[in-house]
Design brief:
The complex is a heterodimer of chains A (96) and B (295).
Chain A lengths: L6 E8 L2 E3 L2 E5 L3 E8 L4 E5 L4 E5 L5 E6 L4 E6 L12 E7 L1
Parallel strand pairs in A: 1-4, 3-9
Antiparallel strand pairs in A: 1-2, 4-7, 5-6, 8-9
Chain B lengths: L6 E4 L7 E4 L17 E6 L14 H13 L7 E5 L9 H15 L7 E4 L2 H4 L5 H6 L5 E5 L2 E5 L12 H12 L6 E5 L18 H8 L5 E5 L6 E5 L2 E5 L31 E7 L7 E5 L4
Parallel strand pairs in B: 2-13, 3-4, 4-5, 7-8, 8-9, 9-11
Antiparallel strand pairs in B: 1-2, 3-12, 6-7, 10-11, 12-13
Helix pairs in contact in B: 5-6
The chains are: A mainly beta (96), B alpha/beta (295).
């Protein structure tokens, strides 16, 4: 849990996946995405939620998040990191 | 053997360009120059030298075959451009340079020696263009040919797909030196506009470059990256993506994942090719697409 009480969801990026690649929480729930990379500088971009962050090895990038509208929101890596970079994708699933 | 038949596909509103499928030996693939200053150039793209895998089991011979085909054109172009991803990405800096040197040696077999290269993200994103610059030279530059101003942009050395403020200022300064009626051709690797951003088919600050170019009524962009022919407009600026010489990719957004189209041994090199572009006074750039090899 984050100090303020939000649920922390840890996401690890590595060539060429996100773990987990499906991030699930409820509409209206306050969460914190805690992103890190297991190998190289990568990106995290979710255009429909206006999210964009750099992810580095041995560092945590924290994104506080609360989404009121249920739905599926795709995210992807927007920092070229090698072969198969273009398929490094995932989905934020906001449940009703 | 000379033939008369050819297929035309005219796309309304795409800068008046006319597209044709080229047939080797076809007289119409090598039209007589209508005016003294008309010329032709050939665009090849996404050769991905060094790639190995099922999407192209013939990867080691595709580029050599394309080179033979370019050399077999009835009328040789004034110059040749390669719009990036000359080599396939590797994490090993030595292997990257080895692939670039091998590519350089192979294109030395082209009859036409005026060859203009730009990097793709596979060539330049992991080392910010260092190896490319060592072996081939600048990643962005301009040149002029028979009244047309060519601008080669680098939207790949930054792994986040930015052109960057410094290069945009360079572009702005360059454009200030040219009158509004200048015919401009932009060469880029990635699309400058948002074609499919979640597939990395976009340039993060590409709109800034487009905005700088908008005051010029005669601008055409030739790019690569997406491994397929694609023609779109942003305002009056036409953008033409080229086929690759490695494997085709699916149409933008046509499926969840951007995975290569499977190799068909019954139709090898389907979806691959290069193009001949004719530059004329009307700045319409008729394009003739060619397959990798003669049928």
């Amino acid at each position: 849990m984050a100090q303020s009480g939000e649920r922390v969801i840890k996401v690890t990026a590595r060539k060429f996946t996100y773990d987990p690649d499906e991030i699930v929480f409820k509409a209206g729930e306050a969460v914190v995405l805690e992103l890190t990379s297991a190998d190289v500088h990568m990106g995290f971009k979710c255009p429909d939620l206006g999210l964009r962050a750099d992810i580095f090895p041995e560092k945590q990038t924290r994104i506080p998040l609360k989404v009121d509208q249920a739905g599926r929101y795709d995210f992807y890596c927007d920092v070229f990191c090698g072969d198969d970079h273009e398929n490094m994708t995932g989905t934020i699933v906001v449940q009703a | 053997m000379k033939v008369d038949r050819r297929d035309f596909l005219k796309l309304a509103g795409v800068g008046g360009a006319v597209f044709a499928s080229g047939l080797y030996g076809c007289t119409t693939s090598s039209p007589k120059m209508a005016a003294q200053d008309d010329f032709m150039f050939v665009q090849l793209s996404d050769t991905h030298w060094g790639f190995q895998g099922p999407p192209n089991p013939d990867a080691k011979v595709t580029l050599p075959k394309a080179i033979q085909s370019v050399n077999a054109l009835e009328t040789q172009p004034d110059f040749i451009v390669f719009t990036g991803d000359l080599t396939h990405t590797t994490d090993d800096p030595h292997e990257r340079r080895k692939r670039m040197e091998e590519f350089k040696a192979m294109i030395g077999e082209l009859k036409v020696k005026d060859i203009r290269l730009i990097p793709g993200e596979h060539d330049a994103s992991l080392d910010h263009g260092k190896a490319f610059q060592e072996i081939f030279g600048p990643t962005h530059y301009t040149f002029d040919h028979k009244g047309v101003h060519f601008i080669a942009l680098d939207n790949v050395s930054d792994p986040k797909a930015f052109i960057g403020d410094e290069q945009l200022q360079w572009l702005a300064d360059d454009l200030k030196k040219h009158s509004a009626d200048t015919r401009i051709v932009v060469l880029a690797h990635r699309p400058l506009f948002d074609l499919a951003p979640n597939w990395d088919w976009a340039t993060a600050d590409g709109q800034k470059a487009i905005d700088l170019l908008m005051p010029f009524p005669h601008v055409t962009v030739f790019y690569g990256h997406i491994h397929q022919e694609n023609h779109q407009m942003t305002g009056h600026i036409s953008h033409h993506a080229a086929k690759s010489l490695i494997f085709p990719l699916p149409a933008p957004g046509s499926q969840p994942k951007r995975v290569p189209v499977a190799w068909d041994p019954a139709a090898p090199y389907r979806g691959l090719g290069f193009r001949n572009v004719r530059a004329d006074a009307a700045a319409s750039y008729p394009i003739t697409e060619f397959p990798v090899t003669k049928a």
